[in-house]
């Protein structure tokens, strides 16, 4: 029920979408957790750094991340039926940078890893490792949404998370 003193609803102005640079600048003020996603693509380990990771559901246990259509890793990763998600700790900025870099062997030294179920490359010494069976995949805008069902969750050593904020990696300090 509308109050007699409430203003009438206003009509939103007709505007074009925010340009990409302004949108990136605005969302850069929102800190995001940093993960590395890995998979086996026909015997080849592939991986990338993502800050778009999120939980989706508890029952069943689902997680998701987004990957740009333009990603050089996406054509290989999209063929994988399973993937690993590695939640990075605040002292692992070098790992995040390595898996975000172009033209490097992301799995070469100094990266320490082993193969898990379905051949999924599992990185050593991350705070958490999730093994996921790929579920839904949908194109949304200029990205792909990849949803996975978590079939294994390994918490190796709870540590403060690595965050991405205003174009740089950093840590988190809890307030007392």
UniProtKB/TrEMBL annotation:
Print the keywords alphabetically.
Oxidoreductase
Q: From the UniProt record, which GO molecular function terms apply?
A: oxidoreductase activity
Q: Does the keyword Coiled coil apply?
A: no
Q: What EC class is this?
A: oxidoreductase
InterPro entries linked to this entry = Flavin_Rdtase-like_dom (IPR002563), NADH-dep_flavin_reductase (IPR050268), Split_barrel_FMN-bd (IPR012349)
- The EC designation for this entry is 1.5.1.-
**Which ranges carry the Flavin reductase like domain?**
27-171
Q: Which PANTHER family match?
A: FLAVIN REDUCTASE, FMN REDUCTASE (NADH) RUTF
Task: From the Swiss-Prot or TrEMBL record, give the protein name.
Answer: Flavin reductase family protein
């Amino acid at each position: 029920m509308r109050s007699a003193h409430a203003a009438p609803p206003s009509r939103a102005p007709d505007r074009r979408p925010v340009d990409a640079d302004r949108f990136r600048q605005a969302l850069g003020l929102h800190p995001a957790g940093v993960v590395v996603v890995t998979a086996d693509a026909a015997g080849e380990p592939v991986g990338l750094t993502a800050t778009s990771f999120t939980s989706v559901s508890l029952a069943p246990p689902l997680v998701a991340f987004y990957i740009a259509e333009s990603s050089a890793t996406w054509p290989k990763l999209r063929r994988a039926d399973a993937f690993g998600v590695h939640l990075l700790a605040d002292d692992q900025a070098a790992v995040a940078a390595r898996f975000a870099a172009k033209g490097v062997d992301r799995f070469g030294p100094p990266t320490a890893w082993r193969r898990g179920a379905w051949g999924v490359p599992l990185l050593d010494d991350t705070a958490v490792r999730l093994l996921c069976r790929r579920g839904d995949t949908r194109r949304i805008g200029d990205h792909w949404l990849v949803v996975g069902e978590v079939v294994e969750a390994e918490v190796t050593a709870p540590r403060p998370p690595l965050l991405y904020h205003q174009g740089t990696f950093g840590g988190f300090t809890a307030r007392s």
